[in-house]
Amino acid sequence: MSNSSGDAAFVRPERGAAYERLAADRAATVAQIAGLSSDFAEIVEANALVAVDDEHDPEGSSTAFERAQVASLLAQAGEHLAELDQAEERLARGDYGRCEGCGEPIPTERLEARPAARTCVLCAAARPR
Question: Which of 10, 36, 83, 110 could form a disulfide with 116 if both were Cys (CB 3.0 to 4.6 A apart)?
Protein backbone atom coordinates (compact mmCIF):
# COMPACT_ATOMS: atom_id res chain seq x y z
CA MET A 1 0.00 0.00 0.00
CA SER A 2 3.00 2.28 0.01
CA ASN A 3 2.47 5.36 -2.04
CA SER A 4 5.64 7.11 -3.10
CA SER A 5 3.95 10.51 -3.16
CA GLY A 6 3.06 10.27 0.55
CA ASP A 7 -0.58 10.91 -0.39
CA ALA A 8 -3.16 9.05 1.71
CA ALA A 9 -5.29 8.27 -1.35
CA PHE A 10 -5.32 4.79 -2.84
CA VAL A 11 -4.60 4.03 -6.45
CA ARG A 12 -7.78 2.79 -8.12
CA PRO A 13 -7.22 -1.03 -7.85
CA GLU A 14 -6.50 -0.76 -4.12
CA ARG A 15 -9.58 1.40 -3.57
CA GLY A 16 -11.72 -1.15 -5.42
CA ALA A 17 -10.26 -3.98 -3.36
CA ALA A 18 -10.89 -2.01 -0.17
CA TYR A 19 -14.54 -1.43 -1.13
CA GLU A 20 -14.89 -5.15 -1.88
CA ARG A 21 -13.35 -6.14 1.49
CA LEU A 22 -15.59 -3.72 3.34
CA ALA A 23 -18.68 -4.89 1.45
CA ALA A 24 -17.88 -8.55 2.14
CA ASP A 25 -17.28 -7.84 5.84
CA ARG A 26 -20.52 -5.80 5.97
CA ALA A 27 -22.52 -8.64 4.38
CA ALA A 28 -21.06 -11.17 6.84
CA THR A 29 -21.74 -8.86 9.79
CA VAL A 30 -25.33 -8.16 8.70
CA ALA A 31 -25.90 -11.92 8.35
CA GLN A 32 -24.38 -12.47 11.80
CA ILE A 33 -26.66 -9.82 13.30
CA ALA A 34 -29.70 -11.45 11.67
CA GLY A 35 -28.73 -14.87 13.04
CA LEU A 36 -28.01 -13.55 16.53
CA SER A 37 -31.26 -11.56 16.55
CA SER A 38 -33.14 -14.73 15.66
CA ASP A 39 -31.30 -16.68 18.38
CA PHE A 40 -32.09 -13.98 20.93
CA ALA A 41 -35.76 -13.96 19.97
CA GLU A 42 -35.90 -17.75 20.32
CA ILE A 43 -34.31 -17.60 23.79
CA VAL A 44 -36.76 -14.92 24.93
CA GLU A 45 -39.69 -16.86 23.46
CA ALA A 46 -38.58 -20.10 25.12
CA ASN A 47 -38.25 -18.29 28.45
CA ALA A 48 -41.77 -16.95 28.14
CA LEU A 49 -43.05 -20.52 28.13
CA VAL A 50 -41.35 -21.51 31.40
CA ALA A 51 -41.53 -20.33 34.98
CA VAL A 52 -40.28 -16.80 35.54
CA ASP A 53 -38.45 -17.75 38.76
CA ASP A 54 -34.83 -18.01 37.52
CA GLU A 55 -33.58 -18.40 41.09
CA HIS A 56 -35.37 -21.71 41.65
CA ASP A 57 -35.42 -22.95 38.06
CA PRO A 58 -32.45 -25.31 37.53
CA GLU A 59 -32.26 -24.13 33.90
CA GLY A 60 -32.74 -20.46 34.78
CA SER A 61 -29.12 -19.49 35.32
CA SER A 62 -27.92 -21.19 32.14
CA THR A 63 -30.75 -19.59 30.17
CA ALA A 64 -29.89 -16.18 31.60
CA PHE A 65 -26.22 -16.75 30.72
CA GLU A 66 -27.14 -17.79 27.18
CA ARG A 67 -29.35 -14.73 26.75
CA ALA A 68 -26.60 -12.42 28.06
CA GLN A 69 -24.00 -14.07 25.84
CA VAL A 70 -26.10 -13.67 22.69
CA ALA A 71 -26.93 -10.07 23.66
CA SER A 72 -23.21 -9.34 24.07
CA LEU A 73 -22.36 -10.89 20.69
CA LEU A 74 -25.17 -8.88 19.12
CA ALA A 75 -23.81 -5.65 20.63
CA GLN A 76 -20.29 -6.47 19.37
CA ALA A 77 -21.61 -7.14 15.86
CA GLY A 78 -23.46 -3.82 15.95
CA GLU A 79 -20.28 -2.02 16.98
CA HIS A 80 -18.38 -3.74 14.16
CA LEU A 81 -21.03 -2.59 11.68
CA ALA A 82 -20.53 0.99 12.90
CA GLU A 83 -16.75 0.56 12.47
CA LEU A 84 -17.35 -0.59 8.89
CA ASP A 85 -19.49 2.52 8.26
CA GLN A 86 -16.64 4.69 9.55
CA ALA A 87 -14.12 2.81 7.37
CA GLU A 88 -16.31 3.42 4.31
CA GLU A 89 -16.41 7.13 5.20
CA ARG A 90 -12.58 7.18 5.49
CA LEU A 91 -12.33 5.46 2.13
CA ALA A 92 -14.65 8.02 0.52
CA ARG A 93 -12.61 10.88 2.06
CA GLY A 94 -9.36 9.31 0.88
CA ASP A 95 -7.78 8.68 4.28
CA TYR A 96 -8.62 4.98 4.60
CA GLY A 97 -5.48 2.94 5.15
CA ARG A 98 -3.63 5.59 7.15
CA CYS A 99 -2.95 4.91 10.81
CA GLU A 100 -4.82 7.34 13.05
CA GLY A 101 -2.01 7.03 15.58
CA CYS A 102 1.19 7.62 13.62
CA GLY A 103 -0.08 8.61 10.17
CA GLU A 104 1.83 5.85 8.42
CA PRO A 105 0.17 3.52 5.92
CA ILE A 106 -1.55 0.49 7.46
CA PRO A 107 -0.11 -2.63 5.78
CA THR A 108 -2.39 -4.21 3.18
CA GLU A 109 -2.20 -7.52 5.05
CA ARG A 110 -3.74 -5.91 8.15
CA LEU A 111 -6.49 -4.29 6.09
CA GLU A 112 -7.20 -7.63 4.44
CA ALA A 113 -7.58 -9.26 7.86
CA ARG A 114 -9.37 -6.31 9.51
CA PRO A 115 -10.91 -4.08 6.83
CA ALA A 116 -12.14 -1.56 9.42
CA ALA A 117 -8.69 -1.16 11.04
CA ARG A 118 -7.93 2.41 12.07
CA THR A 119 -4.39 1.86 13.28
CA CYS A 120 -1.25 -0.03 12.33
CA VAL A 121 -0.24 -3.02 14.45
CA LEU A 122 2.32 -1.04 16.47
CA CYS A 123 -0.15 1.70 17.42
CA ALA A 124 -2.88 -0.87 18.15
CA ALA A 125 -0.50 -2.77 20.45
CA ALA A 126 0.46 0.44 22.26
CA ARG A 127 -3.16 1.42 22.90
CA PRO A 128 -4.48 0.62 26.39
CA ARG A 129 -7.29 -1.92 26.41
Answer: 83
